[in-house]
């Protein structure tokens, strides 16, 4: 574990770079004036499959043996990892079976099927995610690919932060969403190595506080499924691997309310002209709300995903 | 007129490059599979002020004398040129007065005021745009900046096509919206010079057919204000300058229906995760609808603007 570092991410970068999109870094003078910082938005909502998850999924598939790929892979996901793994599996010609919560956004379920995966639905409020995943793996003899609790996932995700710094130069702070922690473990590793002293801040829904509490208590807490519009953050426990990385690298945690998330989604729509899902806008939400202040600094923001239907988007923004 | 060419655009490029955003070119394998071509989306909806218009407005302001800038500039615009000129004027410290139709999208009126311009409203269904503009110019002693009928505007706009080809290499076809023709005159000039033999296709609303008819008849026709959701295309006559350029370079014209425009906006939202206004999506609309076919070709698309409020967007997409 102590060995997970920048090298893992640079190696992953070599694996994924021909397949993932080098997403643009968008900026806005209006935004900079509003928050008093230079804000660099790494737009993983524009990534293939609509989120950063494709990086880690592809990196993990690439690490499997031929025999494992022939057996096929499975996962449990509310949507973004599902689509990412489905496409990554298709790229390697491997079968994929995805267990998705019944109340996952229909657009995500449809997209996952569209990438050729078999989708099995389950009730996330009655069966823990990891238990559901284990059952599927054992019954079908598949290779389980965690959405967040695996160094290969974090190494893949970290390539987004690596590209941000390669393209824009050093940053003083990185703000990113934290769901299960898989993305943050990768970003934090890159920023810690390349921008020593930079602040690394995770943002989660106020309704969750999963990472906030886990880091404060020095141990992973388990919570009820949080009811939040940020469906990418409805986990009940942090991944063991990312938790250790986040603890070691002293990741700060803050929260954003549902209203702050909606305000950020609306801002990104009307001013930046990009579509974000709630968990994709949550890092900017904390900056816009003033929960995080970084006066005069260069602040990288991971805009992690944009998988939301137009109608769902509209209904969320209604008063 | 015969002298307007690539040099004008490359000169404009030198003038605007430090100020305009070099907008990303987005791609989508899903889109490519759907239309059977390699589609390169030049995202001017992500440009400063939310449309390509900032390029031409800034280039024109840069050409004025100190005395002219001190007098101030004026324009008539349904919105995108208004915002673009307002910001360009502010960058040069020049006053700007913008005449806007009463039924222009509120988000565009608000943004224009936000950039520091004085906004005067008029009824576009009772007073021709050019007449309204002349009156304002004469009464206030301002320098009139056309939204589309000026080589400086076209030279500025052309820099978007120049960047597209510089960043992505030669293309076999360019598809772009045509309102007054100012943008197309610039793009066509660049593509004709750098990609000889490439198709150059303009798209306008089916409810307008202004450029289609003007080019077919060999003369600029004047029409009633077309009632279309593509508010960037509600002109009643093509600009004299762009008309000549489009005729000389044999620009093809096709049209898109309101439903086709909405389908393209929805596709860009849900698959590309970007926000477009109706006239910004119209070029892709014609390709998605099959009106233009370019099998196996590399097709550049100008996504010209994204100035639309979230609520208006939602209401357009309701059945």
What would your notes on this structure say?
The structure is a homodimer of 319-residue chains. By secondary structure, chain A is of the alpha/beta class. In chain A, 47% of the residues lie in helices and 15% in strands. The first copy, chain A, contains 14 helices and ten strands. Chain A has helices at residues 6-16, 29-35, 53-63, 66-71, 80-91, 106-114, 129-140, 151-168, 182-194, 210-217, 240-248, 258-272, 278-288, 310-317; strands spanning 25-26, 38-43, 73-76, 96-101, 118-122, 143-144, 173-177, 199-205, 252-256, 298-303. In chain A, strands 1-2-10-7-8-9 form a six-stranded mixed beta sheet, sandwiched between helices. A four-stranded parallel beta sheet of chain A has the order 5-4-3-6, sandwiched between helices. In chain A, helix 6 links the parallel strand 4 (96-101) and strand 5 (118-122). In chain A, helix 1 packs across helix 8, helix 5 runs parallel beside helix 6 (106-114) and helix 12 packs across helix 13 (278-288). The longest helix of chain A has 18 residues, at 151-168. The model of chain A has no long low-confidence stretch (mean pLDDT 94). At the A-B interface, helix 12 and helix 14 of A face helix 12 and helix 14 of B.
């Amino acid at each position: 574990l102590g060995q997970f570092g920048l090298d893992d991410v640079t190696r992953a970068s070599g694996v994924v770079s021909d397949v993932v999109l080098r997403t643009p870094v968008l900026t806005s003078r209006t935004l900079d004036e509003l928050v008093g910082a230079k804000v660099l938005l790494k737009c993983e909502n524009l990534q293939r499959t609509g989120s950063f998850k494709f990086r880690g999924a592809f990196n993990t598939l690439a690490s499997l043996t031929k025999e494992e790929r022939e057996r096929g892979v499975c996962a449990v996901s509310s949507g973004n990892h599902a689509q990412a793994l489905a496409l990554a599996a298709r790229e390697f010609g491997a079968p994929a079976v995805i267990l998705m919560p019944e109340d996952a956004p229909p657009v995500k379920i449809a997209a996952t099927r569209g990438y050729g995966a078999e989708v099995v639905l389950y009730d996330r409020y009655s069966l823990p995610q990891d238990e559901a995943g284990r059952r599927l793996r054992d019954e079908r003899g598949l290779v389980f690919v965690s959405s967040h609790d695996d160094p290969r996932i974090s190494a893949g995700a970290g390539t987004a932060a690596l590209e941000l710094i390669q393209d824009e130069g050093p940053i003083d702070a990185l703000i990113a969403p934290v769901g299960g922690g898989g993305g943050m473990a990768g970003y934090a590793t890159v920023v810690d190595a390349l921008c020593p002293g930079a602040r690394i801040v995770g943002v989660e829904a106020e309704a969750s506080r999963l990472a906030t509490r886990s880091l404060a208590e020095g141990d992973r807490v388990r919570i009820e499924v949080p009811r939040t519009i940020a469906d990418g953050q409805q986990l009940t426990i942090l991944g063991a691997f990312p938790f250790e990385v986040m603890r070691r690298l002293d990741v700060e945690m803050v929260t954003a309310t549902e209203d702050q998330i909606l305000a950020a989604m609306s801002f990104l729509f009307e001013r930046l002209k990009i579509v974000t899902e709630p968990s994709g806008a949550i890092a900017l939400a904390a900056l816009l709300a003033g929960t995080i202040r970084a006066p005069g600094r260069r602040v990288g923001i991971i805009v992690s995903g944009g998988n939301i239907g137009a109608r769902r988007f509209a209904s969320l923004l209604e008063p």
